[in-house]
Amino acid sequence: MPHILVDHDATLREFLDTRRFAHELHALAAKTVDGITIESCKTRFRCVEEVVIAHDAPRQALIHVDFAILPGRTTETKTALGQAVLDLVRAHTAAATQLTVHASVEVRDLDAAYTKHVTPAGTER
Description:
The chain is α/β, with parallel strands linked by helices and 125 residues long. Strands 2-1-3-4 form a 4-stranded mixed β-sheet, covered by helices on one side. It has helices at 18-32, 75-92, and strands spanning 3-9, 42-48, 60-69, 100-109. Helix 2 links the parallel strand 3 (60-69) and strand 4 (100-109). The model has no long low-confidence stretch (mean pLDDT 95). It has 2 helices and 4 strands, in the order βαββαβ. The relative contact order is 0.24. It is 26% helix and 27% strand. The chain is globular. Pfam families: CHMI. This is Isomerase. InterPro entries: 5-COMe_2-OHmuconate_Isoase, Tautomerase/MIF_sf. It comes from Streptomyces yunnanensis. One of its GO terms (molecular function) is isomerase activity.
């Protein structure tokens, strides 16, 4: 926890340094939400080859961050995290000046049935 999924349009590939973004995102989450550590953050990126926005206007791009955390955080905490993540997304896509970038973030609770297990390296599986 948290599980972070970043879907982004292929047109953003040349502008978005995913590793740098993830490192900054993890630090931001740990700073913003009690109980989140950098070591607990897991981010996946999916580059979407085709996106249709509105009536297929040219030079449009999409990036959406789905940020799933354990339940129990206040709405205010989730809102603050969402806005901070959106600000980070905007900073990391600012160089895409030839594109209209549609950026969004959803901070949501993981389901109560969420479970996990971590097997440390060097141990039997």
